[in-house]
Amino acid sequence: MSIRVCARDNKTFRRLLEYYSDREKAARLFRKNGGKVVGELGCDVPDELIIAAGMFPYRIYAGECSHLIEADRYLEYSFDPVVRMQFEKLTDGTLNNEIDYLAISNSTDTLIRIYLYLKEIKRSEPEKPVPDLEFIDWLFTRRLIHQTRNEFTVRLFWEKLEEWSGRKITYKDFAEAASICNEDRVAIREIMKLRRAYKPRVTGSEALVIIGSAFYMDRREHAALTRQLYEDAKKWPEINGPRIFLTGSAQENTELYELIENEGAVIVGEDHDWGERFVNRDCNLGYSPVRAVVDQYMMREFSSKKAFVSQRVEALDREVEACGAEAVMFYMNAFEEAASWDMPSQRKSLAARGIKTRAFTKMSYPVSKNSALEPGLKTFIESLKG
Length: 386
Prior knowledge:
By secondary structure, this protein is of the alpha/beta class. 49% of the residues lie in helices and 12% in strands. The strands form two sheets. Strands 2-1-3-4 form a four-stranded parallel sheet, sandwiched between helices. It is globular and about 60 Å long. The mean pLDDT is 94.
């Protein structure tokens, strides 16, 4: 996996970068000490419940695969490249030392198909190293009848986690886990204020490291490190440059961000699932545990994969205004079509408000495969400076 971000001369940031770069470290140690790890595929798997069950949540990522033998065997080429690489790791034994179980949420229509493929492989080829699966079948509309259905879905996942862990999840377990996750999100949001400030002190690539390291380490430790980093970062030098908001395909590493920053721009926000969307809603402990989980995951800012175009237009307008972005960059991988459906209406709304936009579509993965990207970024960012 390509992690090119340069660590500041800061002990706390280097600690977070260590987990962001070596994503297997904490999961392997947790298993070595007798714990169980639940892999998460999709952005709507409730971390709080996994932690409450005494297990460790581990976000499945693509990374870099030199071969895609299993993906080529089972998947159509129309699957987007990130999902193909994730599938490869789930079927070729790469993750045998990291995860015990796999929870898949229907965060995208593609992941629904991946679940069905993995389920059939596990049934018809039991010798394959596919872990035990659980599917979280959310309904993403926000009417009361659908929220009631989602509470039923959470109860099913709750029961499955009890089966996997071999223990009952009590209210006390849940409340403690939810409090830890809330504390971590609050700490991250505090440091993100330094990113969105009139004169930012935290870059976009640093923000990805701060947020993404939470997916691969103990949340209590992550919250403590993030709080300490906030105190340190308040003294960091101010950053100048055009303010850009990034939308489109999720960025699992900092490569794209660093290309943009190398041209002198500042990424002050994003709405993909490896960035600030992760922290934009807390778990409300005033609700019952099941209702709290539904509220936390289903009432977050809309994802491009599960929302109406009008909802995505309004959501992007809000986010761009909140972070004071001067421009919006759309970046979309090849075969990842959902985000592109929103783009014409979003660009029209942004243009009416004087926000410049630039779209990079049908991009290859990883970012380094796109030879025309750097010149395009340079031209766009120079136009913003002018």
